[in-house]
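Batch job 17 of 40 flagged for manual review because the log was empty.
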Amino acid sequence: MSESDQVWESGEPERPYVVTRGRSGADDKAPLDLVTLIVSRSGPTPGMEPEQSNVLRLCRSPLSVAEISAYLHLPVSMVSVLVHDLLAEDRVEARSLVPPAQLPDPAIIEAVMYGLQKL
């Protein structure tokens, strides 16, 4: 069990509060959702917070924010803050899932249907 797991499970929220500097997961600049994939661009360096180092190690292969939260046994809001900090330092890359295809213009669908009826 890592140090962050022990602190969180012991009911002492001071460590997460200190690590996130009292910030929540809300950030208007680059919103992250639970399925945003995070990939490390570099490895941990000496002096980093253990939680940030753990995120970098975990994300050698793409992982979603929700998966990172589950593996580290940390709240999603805390993981979001950690990932935002790592994004600002260009240590990770965030990849959104491919957006669903947009529906074609209804006029085109009607024209195709009309053409098929004429056959």
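Reviewer: the log was empty due to a logging misconfiguration, but the result itself is present. The chain has a mean pLDDT of 79. Unflagging and moving on to job 18.
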